[in-house]
Amino acid sequence: MWNSISGDGKDANGDSSFYLGKKVAFVYRAQKEIRGSKIRVIWGTVTRPHGNSGVVRAQFKHNLPPKSFGASVRIMLYPSSI
Fold first, then answer.
1. Which residues form the signal peptide (predicted)?
2. By CB atoms within 10 Å of each CB, which of 24, 25, 51, 67 scores lowest?
3. What would the pLDDT profile of 22-75 be if each residue is shown by its tens digit?
4. Considering only CA atoms, which of 57, 42, 50 is closest in space to residue 13?
C-alpha cells in the first residue's frame, strides 16, 4: 500500500528528491506490553515524489492502521547518499 507523506520544510520537487530511499517510521502505542515496552513501530521507505509540492510516497512493510491517517511519521535521515 502506498501512503503520501508531506513535511513541514519541504517545498519543491527538488527538496523531495533528498528523501528518496530514506526510512520512515510510524510509531504508536499499543495496549499490551511486549518485551518491556508498549511502543511499536511500523517501518517503511520513501519511494518516489508525489506531485510538485514536495509530497513523497512511502511504502511500508505492513499496511498502516486507519488511525494513522493524518498522524505524524518520522523520516530517518539514513541511508545517506551525501
1. none
2. 67
3. 999 999 999 999 999 999 999 999 999 988 888 899 999 999 999 898 899 999
4. 50
User: What does the block give as the cell for 67?
Assistant: 488511525
pLDDT of the residue at 29: 96
Work out the burial of residue 5: count CB atoms within 10 Å of its CB; fewer than 13 is exposed, 13-18 middle, 19 or more buried.
Answer: buried
Q: What single DSSP character describes residue 6?
A: -
* 44 contact partners, CB below 8 Å, separation of at least 6: 3, 23, 24, 25, 26, 58, 59, 60, 61, 73
Please say whether the beta carbons of 29 and 42 come within 8 A. Answer: no
Q: How far apart are CA 24 and CA 17, in angstroms?
A: 15
| Cell numbers standing for residue 8 | 513541514
